[in-house]
Every structure is written in C-alpha cells, then in structure tokens.
Amino acid sequence: MSDKKQKIIYTGTDEAPLLATASLLPIIRTFTSAVGIDVELSDISVAARMLGEFSEFLTEEQRVPDNLAELARLTLESDTNIIKLPNISASVQQLKACIKELQAKGYALPDFPEDPQTDEELQLRTRYGKIIGSAVNPVLREGNSDRRAPKAVKEFARKHPHSMSEWKQWSRTHVSHMHGGDFYDGEQSMVLDKDRKVKMEVVTDSGKTEVLKAEIPLLKSEIIDLMFMSKKELCEFYEREMEDCRQSGILFSLHVKATMMKVSHPIVFGHAVKIYYKDAFAKHGELFDELGINVNNGMATLYEKIAELPASKREEIERDLRACQEHRPSLAMVDSSRGITNFHSPSDVIVDASMPAMIRSGGQMWGGDGKLYDCKAVMPESTFARIYQEMINFCKWHGNFDPVTMGTVPNVGLMAQKAEEYGSHDKTFETSEPGVARITDVETGEVLLEQRVEEGDIWRMCQTKDAPIQDWIKLAVRRARESDTPVVFWLDPYRPHENELIKKVEACLKDHDTEGLDIQIMSQVRAMRYTLERVVRGLDTISATGNILRDYLTDLFPILELGTSAKMLSIVPLMAGGGLFETGAGGSAPKHVQQLVEENHLRWDSLGEFLALAASIEELSLKFDNSKAGILASTLDAATGRLLDNNRSPSRKVGELDNRGSHFYLSLYWAEELVKQSADKDLAEHFKPLFEQLSSKEEQIVKELAEVQGKAVDIGGYYLSDPELRKAVMRPSGTFNEIMDSASSS
Ligand SMILES: NC(=O)C1=CN([C@@H]2O[C@H](COP(=O)(O)OP(=O)(O)OC[C@H]3O[C@@H](n4cnc5c(N)ncnc54)[C@H](OP(=O)(O)O)[C@@H]3O)[C@@H](O)[C@H]2O)C=CC1
Ligand SMILES: O=C(O)CCC(=O)C(=O)O
Ligand SMILES: [Mg+2]
C-alpha cells in the first residue's frame, strides 16, 4: 500500500442532499477510517459560494474559503477523488432569497442589482452572475461522463417496477419546435487549423464595431461554432403555437434549461411570457420597465413588483393579465393547488427532468384544476427537441414502456472542459442593433465565421476542445468493450458542428481496437428509434452523445427505467487521472426539505451516494494498491444490493423508514458483509463488534428513528442552515450515534 494520503473530498451542497449528508458522512467516516481513507467535507453550497465571492463585505470571522475554485484546481491533479452531490443551480429568485437569508443572519452582502446602471452595480451583477445557474458542475467536469444503471439497481427496478401511466394512441400530446431561425438553422462550424486568439464582435448597420468578447484563446484542432436564434422568428413561432394550442384545447407547456443555459434560455422564456400576455405588456410595458420588471426571471417577479403599487393600479394590471388568458391556451401547472404556472419561474420546469416526467405520465401534465391533460410541449430550439417527439411517436404506437422488460441505455457523454453549448454562456449575447456578428482572429484580423443578426437575436459561440473529444471516443470504446454492449454515436450529419464531430469519430475509431464491437453513428432521430426498438426487446444500447443529449438522456432513460435518475451511477473519469463521482443525475429535491421541516421525515434516497461512494473507494483501492479499500468497496455494493432487496429505501410517508433509517440499514448490512468476507480476516475482526451491536440494537434504533417523526423541526435556515441543528435532526438516535462514534474512534 502506498504511503500517500488517501482522501475523498465529499461535497457539502444544498437542500435534501445536504440534510442527508449530516447523517451519512459520519457513517462513511466510521467505515473508511478503518482502511486509511480520510473523507474531507468541502462546502460548495450556494450560500458558501456567495460568502466566498463577497468576502470583502464580511467580518474576519464570517469569511470562508473559495472551495469551488480549490476543487476546480484539484480536478487537474492525478490523485483527486471527489464525490459531488447535487447542488442548487440557482435562479435569480433563489439567489435573492439566499441573499436575504444571509443578510438577516448578519452577513452584510450587497443587494442583487436587478436593473444595473452604474459601473458598481454592473460589477456586482457580474459577480452574482457567477453564482447563478449551473455554476458548479461545469467547473468541476474536467472529464467526460459515464452514466449507467448498475446491475443491482436495474434488477431491483425489474422486480419492483414503478408506476407508468398508459399512453393512448389518440393522445394529442406533441412537441413543437421552430423550423427555421433557430440555432440549428443558422449554425456554422469550423475546426481550428492552429492555435489562435479570437474576438467576438458585431459590426452594426450604423457603422459601429461592438467588441463583446475581446479575447478567447483557442487550440489547434478544436471545433468552434457560431449560431443565432432570431427573435422575430421565435416570437412568430410562439404566436402560432399558442393559437394552435388554444384551438386544440390542450395545455401549453414550455420546457427550457434556464439553469444550465443561463443566458439564452431566460431570454427564450421571457419572450414566451411576453407573447402570451402581449396585450397587457403593450398597455403596461412602460410601467413594468420603470418598476425594473424582467420577466425573463418569471412572472413571480412581476407579481412581486406590482404588489408594491397602489391597490387600484395593481388590480387593473391583474385584470388585464387575466384578460389575456381568456384568448390564450391554458398553461401547464407546476403547483395547481397554489396557482403556480409554467411561467412562474424559468427554472421550475427543467427540460431534462420535465419531459421524462411528462412521458412517464402518459404524455400528460397538470392543469389549473388539478387534473391531467394532454399538452403541447414547446422547446423552441429544434436541435434536440426532435428526440422527444420520436419517443412520443413510439409510445403512441407501442404503448408505454414496461420497466420489467425494457433494456437499459447507459450514456457516454462529451462534457469535459465546458464542451459545446453548456460552456457557451460567457460567449452568448443578445444583439442590441442589427449587423454582422463575427468571430475574428485578434492578431491577423481574419474573419473566421460570420452571420447576419437583427436586434434582439441571441447569438453565441461554442467551443469543443479536441482532447476531450478524443477522450470521449476512447471512453465509448472502453465502455462498449467492458460491458459488451453496442454503442450508437448520436450525431446529425446535417448539423455543421456534429458533422465535424462525425469526421473526428470516424478518424479516431481507426486508432482503437474495435474488433468485435458494434459501433454505429446515427442522426438523433434515427438513433432514438433504433435504441427504442432495442429497448422494448429488452436489449441494451450505449448512447454516446454530446453534452446536451448527455444531460437529457441521462434523465430520460433512468426516469423511465428506474423511476428516477437519482439511482444512476455517474462517473467522470477526470482527464488528468483523478475521479469525480457525481451522485445520481438528479437534482436537489426542494420538496423534500419542506417535508422534513414540516413533519421530520426525509424521503431523499441516498442510493446515488452509496453507488458513487463504492466507485470512489474502488478507485482509491486501485490507485493506492489498498486491498482493504477494495473489500470496503465491494462489501458496500453488496450492502446496497441487500438494502434494495430488503426494501430499506426511504418511504415517502411520515412515520415509516426515511433517509436516516436507510442509512442505519446500510451500516448494518455493510458491517455484516465485512464480517462475512474471508479475503481479509483483520477487517472482518475489526467490524465484528460494530455488526454485533448494530444487529442487537436494530429494533431500538429503528424505534428511536421513527419516534421523532411527525412533528415540525427547525434546522435554522434554508440556504444556510445551522450545522448543529442539522446534526441534531439528522442524527436523532442516541443508540445508533453512540455505536457509530465509538466504532470510529476504536
Ligand atoms: N447535479 C446537479 O447538481 C443537479 C442539480 N439540479 C438542481 O436541483 C434543483 C431541483 O431540480 P428538479 O428539476 O426539481 O429535480 P429533482 O431531481 O431535484 O427532483 C425531481 C423529483 O425527483 C425525485 N427525486 C430526485 N432525487 C431524488 C432522491 N435522491 N430521492 C428521492 N426522490 C428523488 C423527487 O420526487 P418526489 O417529489 O416525488 O419525491 C423530486 O421532487 C434545481 O435547483 C436544479 O437546478 C438539477 C439536476 C442536477
Ligand atoms: O448543473 C446543473 O444545473 C444540472 C446538471 C444536470 O442536470 C446534469 O448533469 O444531468
Ligand atoms: Mg440532468
């Protein structure tokens, strides 16, 4: 065994995963300390990131280190091993709520400048912008992604299938996307002939040259793309689709990813809201501007701002908004009991999760009356929307999928170094004047790519470096070999960017041993159809995709196959040699916190954490030749399998086993598996007392964990809860705590 320090960095995040960590982390440490592995907690919650960014506003004692920057640095080192739990990708509303909570707790943070005017406000806006949206994952992802349902999880889903609503052939649900004027339509792409520095600029019709990004360093062989979305065509599209939806009497639902596409999608969302409430905006637009209302952040901000107006004015606006609804389609609801529609916030409906949920529900979403209806799922950008229509066609024809018999679709996703659209937000702009948008070589003045844009168009540049592409292809070949499963590269030859990728894939595959492997390249719609034909026959197919489809497919298939993406194994082999282990592919489940606070029951399932932990320990065992760690990893996997088989996962109902109870059973089974194994006698001896105590006290511990439920609890905050209160709530069994604490010190 090597002498180097063996360490796992476990991320402290937000909401349900953070609560679960208060219970699980001490348990993990009890086990890993026996094999020489340290587990260090690194707080990267929204609150911690905010405090890290604005230290100059804080007192000495209030300051915290910039943990995310440190983790980003570590991803470039070969020994790094990080377990990354889901975190909040904050909307503006969430950001403001976090600022308010921290200010109330005595942190003198500046207010969020909603409508920045002065230089100082613009600077603050930029700094807060770093915390908004998907600000963690892209920074840590210095590798491509390998996401799959582990065998035990898939088998469990087959034995205990989740509910699936029926698809009717006569369902009117469908996807609507633009057929022109979108990013797909206007894309241009090129591969760099040499290292260059470029700038992004618009030469306006009025004769100005606006430099929007002064210098972007590019490397030889990387792919760059230039694309735009026409405001005019987007608005015409919305108008047409809203009218079509009204006539057909189904729900209008808009599916965007405003968290990850944090510049473009709020704008795309805002236009939908403004078209829907067109007459009210025509009448009150000036007042809305004066009030600093920006509906790109959702109707919630509008209602909040007009609440400050005199009652008569507010009522007039509300009446006018309601009048618009009369000749518009009904909106899909996020929470019909509270009247929260799809337009409330751009981050309430997140496409990767919302479309699978709709497909799982037989193509229906909730209407304002709390009943389910068919819907028009609007995804303006056509590039990836078509895969959902293909799946809907398949469901209408074949009926819903059956989790008992369906095959599995693991994914190998190109995402390293902010690949493709998901790395483009610092290179995305809304044009203020018509002109020519172009990418120009800073040194030679050579124009590499250019296209015409009009006022209000969204234009952007995407980058995909060559090393991540080569690594992605290698990973796909490796996964095909290791799992003996066919791979389909989902690449569309009609899209310039993907056409360049196809050339690279074809060339690179020649350098790999692909003897006996089934590797194909298909455009997205064909790839979906091909994969689904196999899925219904119980056959497995790896999807090798770009970054957006990685995100979409690793929610879509897991939600259909397993009921949730939280049960996925999600590994990011870092290109520098380390490992990033993401827990599941799901989010941070805000509803779970509400339930805990109201009735002291946490239904968060830590299965994703268990799977990631085993993979993380396994990697350390290989890297440091630590055979004991290898046993710890394999016994953890065995314990997780038993947890599933014995139905010790959290229940949704108060009074029944919850997250904390499932952690107890994991400890019990893990200790037992360690005692049962014969490969390392010392390890078996070490864990024997722990196993004996846990098993003899099982009844009492489960009773203590159940007894506390049913009453409201205080964790001292939402974004910055109190660690002591969190610990008290999440570790309520004195008997269990005593056993675990004494085992870790022994
Ligand atoms: N990797 C990351 O860091 C990611 C972060 N996010 C962020 O998470 C937040 C919420 O996103 P949202 O789209 O609502 O998606 P979530 O995945 O958080 O939740 C959707 C629903 O899935 C179920 N669910 C998800 N995970 C679990 C789990 N571990 N145990 C039990 N049930 C689970 C819950 O259903 P039920 O209510 O029925 O219990 C939950 O309400 C946002 O801030 C988003 O940006 C989203 C995706 C990935
Ligand atoms: O970082 C985020 O906001 C979401 C990430 C995500 O959905 C994913 O990687 O699957
Ligand atoms: Mg996702």
UniProtKB/TrEMBL annotation:
InterPro entries: Isocitrate_DH_NADP_mono. Its EC number is 1.1.1.42. It comes from the Bacteria. The keyword Magnesium applies. It is an enzyme of class 1 (oxidoreductase). Its cofactor is Mg(2+); Mn(2+). D-threo-isocitrate binds at R147, R550. Mg(2+) binds at D352, D551, D555. The keyword Phosphoprotein does not apply. Signal peptide: none annotated. The record marks K257, Y422 as: Critical for catalysis. It catalyses: D-threo-isocitrate + NADP(+) = 2-oxoglutarate + CO2 + NADPH. Transmembrane segments: none annotated. GO terms for molecular function: isocitrate dehydrogenase (NADP+) activity; metal ion binding. It holds the Pfam family IDH. NADP(+) binds at K84, L85, P86, N87, I88, S89, N137, G587, S588, H592, R603, W604, D605, R652. Keywords: Glyoxylate bypass, Magnesium, Metal-binding, NADP, Oxidoreductase, Tricarboxylic acid cycle. Binds 1 Mg(2+) or Mn(2+) ion per subunit. Substrate binds at S134, A135, V136, N137, P138, V139, L140, R141. One of its GO terms (biological process) is glyoxylate cycle. NCBIfam families: monomer_idh. Belongs to the monomeric-type IDH family. This is Isocitrate dehydrogenase [NADP]. It comes from Granulosicoccus antarcticus IMCC3135. The lineage of its organism: Bacteria, Pseudomonadati, Pseudomonadota, Gammaproteobacteria, Chromatiales. The gene is icd_1.
